[in-house]
Amino acid sequence: MERSITDSLVDDFSSEGSTGTAPTGRRSGVTQNGIPDIVIRRLPLYARSLSYLSGEGIETVSSSDLGLRLGVSAAQIRRDLSYFGEFGKQGKGYNVAYLLAEINNILQLDRDWPVALVGLGHLGRALLHYEGLSEQGFRIQALFDHNPSKVGQVIDDLEIYSMHDLPGVLSKAGIKIAIMAVPASGAQAATDALVAGGIEAILNYAPIIVQVPAHVRIRHIDPIVALQTMTYYVHDDRHLHNK
Fold first, then answer.
1. Beta strand 177-180 pairing with 113-118
2. Nearest CA to 46 among 61, 33, 36?
3. What is the average pLDDT score of the chain?
C-alpha cells in the first residue's frame, strides 16, 4: 500500500534516535480551504495544553506526552501539525514556547479581536462579564438587543444599540466576530442582520440551528443538547427503587 505524504511526514518525525535538524516552521502557501475544519477545532486545545506546560516550566514536550494530556494519539497531533509545517526536531519533540507561538499565529490569536454581542438577557450579560474572553484577546466592544426597553442602557461603559444600528456600529468598530445569545424565535433574523452587517464568524448560543452563507463561519453551542447526549451514558437506578 502506498503511503501518503502526510504519513511519510509522521513516520519521519516519529523516528527515535535521529539526530534531526531544526524545525523549518510554517509551510508557505497553506490555504484555509485546504485544512479540514476538525483540525482547526483541535488547534486551540493544543495551544491551551501548551500554555499550561509553559506555566509549569516545561520547555519541551513529545507528541506522546501532549497526546496523553489531551486524550488523542501522538500520530493525530503530528498529522494535524503537518498540515501547516514542521515544528519539532526529530527525536527531540517540540519546544513548548515555539510551538505555542506558532499555533497562536496560525489561529491569528497573536492580536486582540473586537466582538459584538447580540442579546442582553441573563446569558448575554453573563458572557459580557466573563473575564475569560478578554483574557484570551476577545473584547466585547458592541452590544445589541431587539428589546426597546434595553436599548440605550449602558453596561460597563458600553451602550446597548438597536438592531437597526447594527451595520453602522459594526463598520465603524471594524468588528467581524459576533456572539449571539438570543431566543430561538429571533435567532435567524439576528443572524441575517449580522451577516448583512459584515460579520464573518458567529458563536451561536441560541437553541436553534441557523443558516448562514458559505463565506460565514458559525459555531453552535447548546448546553441542553450536550446534556441530553450524556444522559444516555448515565446509569439509571430507578428500577432498583421500584423493586
1. parallel
2. 61
3. 87
